[in-house]
Amino acid sequence: MSAARPVHVSPGAAHLPPEVLRLLDAWLPEQRWYPVPAEGVTHEPWLTVTFGGVADVVVALLRLVGPGLASGDESLVIQVPLVLTPTAEPEADTPDTEAAGLIGTVTTASGTATVHDGGVHPAAWHAYFTAALPGACEPEDCAELVGARRISGEQSNTSVVLPAMPHAAGRGGMLKILRTVALGPHPDVVIPAALTEAGWDGVPRYLGAVGLSGAGAGTRPGSGSGSGSASLPDAHLAVLSELVHDATDGFELACAYAARDEDFGERALELGAVVAQMHTALRRALGPGPALEPAGFMGVLRRRAAEAFADVPALAPQRAGVTALYESLSTRLSAVVARGDVVPLQAIHGDLHLGQALWSSDGWKVLDFEGEPQRPVSERTAPDLPLRDVAGMLRSLDYAAAVGQATDPHWAAHAQVSFLEGYRQASNGEVHEGTAHPVGGATSSGSALDVGTAELLLRALTVDKALYEVVYEFRHRPAWMHIPLAAVDRVLSS
Ligand SMILES: Nc1ncnc2c1ncn2[C@@H]1O[C@H](COP(=O)(O)OP(=O)(O)O)[C@@H](O)[C@H]1O
Ligand SMILES: O=P(O)(O)O[C@H]1O[C@H](CO)[C@@H](O[C@H]2O[C@H](CO)[C@@H](O)[C@H](O)[C@H]2O)[C@H](O)[C@H]1O
């Protein structure tokens, strides 16, 4: 056993020869987690991270520079862990070596080295793991990493299952290497840490994190230490949590029900209750936010819609309907505020969908508090309306009906009504404590949204989510673009 490994941070491309950077320029845009369309984008080395006592693992933090991308502190930064291994012979590129994460071989003045993707390499997993957990093992006898494997699939980050890792409640860990690094404490660290500390068991228990400048807010004291320089930016690189055993992905579960036309009502009801409890736990753990300010809120909705219209020409016919819906909402919200009512904001999940929920023998567990990865982090972490998460789940149930090819035309609507009922029932418990409105997240202490405004708000947030999804599908899965496009149509004509 050793102490937690210190993390060393150097500016620019220290430890990374230009040959490696050139290799990455070609490889990065092909990765599923690459966050933007690659055309015209260059990769500018920002920081390089190494781990004390580990020779061959180097993490490149690269700023994405290009047309339409934010710059300076707002830049999109991607995390690229690499394993550089000196070798005598260049390794041939075959399907086997690709699966093992071989990016290529470089020859520099100091010799020839293979370059592997650290996201799929045990040496890098070990480096992160021992940086997150004090007293963790050495690589040669690391029982904790036995059987470790990266999970496959459409992920925005890189997650590694550690089935043998012991913890207070049993065995099994999940190491998540964050592919998009944000300046400041990362919500996928801070929120699970706060919910775990508050004792809410609807989230996999938080165990530790890796950060640049020491333990950021919400990390275990002493874990993930950086090299301690006061000038280092605060940013998280990875998070470690308990593995939820025998879990089924919520989206796969719902699609399987939809494919059989089986009633998903009971599961959806339970999920609604868990989402309501999550909102209560977040409000208690992180405190209430400020009141919603209609002009600013509507400004953000309109800007996001304008961005979606600019990105996806197929959305053009919806522009007038979206504008009219937002206009009605703006008028109603202004009236709410004018009569002295307050709509409080709070920490929310921010990108809630069925794939962020695991169904286990212990009920539903909620994952991935990163927020919508395509949004700037300041927007993602800002206090928001809990109703935004509700809209996210409603959209997801619609996706499950479409992807699972439910033939029952009421499958999605029935699941959505059950979800809302579960949310309402669990929120009603809260009203007695004077903290939450059963639908809209407004306070019950003399200042609630009227039902009409709450419903309009939910429609607008559903459209906002569906527009985000249209852009997401346009970039990543064009064959599914019809699903959110149809939803925009439906909400506008309802
Ligand atoms: N603690 C956990 N226990 C079991 N499975 C998990 C856990 N955390 C994540 N997963 C699985 O990994 C997948 C990806 O995790 P997630 O945090 O959503 O990553 P991403 O941001 O890359 O989408 C989830 O859909 C889930 O199937
Ligand atoms: O991978 P993340 O969890 O970061 O989220 C992104 O990818 C999701 C898809 O993997 C995407 O979700 C959309 O598709 C889901 C079905 O695959 C559906 O259940 C969701 O409702 C829908 O939004 C998510 O929007 C995106 O941020």
TrEMBL record:
<dbReference type="GO" id="GO:0005524">
    <property type="term" value="F:ATP binding"/>
</dbReference>
<dbReference type="InterPro" id="IPR040999">
    <property type="entry name" value="Mak_N_cap"/>
</dbReference>
<protein>
    <recommendedName>
        <fullName>Maltokinase</fullName>
        <ecNumber>2.7.1.175</ecNumber>
    </recommendedName>
</protein>
<keyword id="KW-0067">ATP-binding</keyword>
<dbReference type="GO" id="GO:0005978">
    <property type="term" value="P:glycogen biosynthetic process"/>
</dbReference>
<comment type="pathway">
    <text>Glycan biosynthesis; glycogen biosynthesis.</text>
</comment>
<keyword id="KW-0808">Transferase</keyword>
<dbReference type="GO" id="GO:0016301">
    <property type="term" value="F:kinase activity"/>
</dbReference>
<dbReference type="InterPro" id="IPR011009">
    <property type="entry name" value="Kinase-like_dom_sf"/>
</dbReference>
<comment type="subunit">
    <text>Monomer.</text>
</comment>
<keyword id="KW-0320">Glycogen biosynthesis</keyword>
<dbReference type="Pfam" id="PF18085">
    <property type="entry name" value="Mak_N_cap"/>
</dbReference>
<dbReference type="InterPro" id="IPR002575">
    <property type="entry name" value="Aminoglycoside_PTrfase"/>
</dbReference>
<feature type="domain" description="Aminoglycoside phosphotransferase">
    <location>
        <begin position="266"/>
        <end position="415"/>
    </location>
</feature>
<keyword id="KW-0321">Glycogen metabolism</keyword>
<feature type="domain" description="Maltokinase N-terminal cap">
    <location>
        <begin position="27"/>
        <end position="118"/>
    </location>
</feature>
<keyword id="KW-0119">Carbohydrate metabolism</keyword>
<keyword id="KW-0418">Kinase</keyword>
<dbReference type="Pfam" id="PF01636">
    <property type="entry name" value="APH"/>
</dbReference>
<comment type="similarity">
    <text>Belongs to the aminoglycoside phosphotransferase family.</text>
</comment>
<keyword id="KW-0547">Nucleotide-binding</keyword>
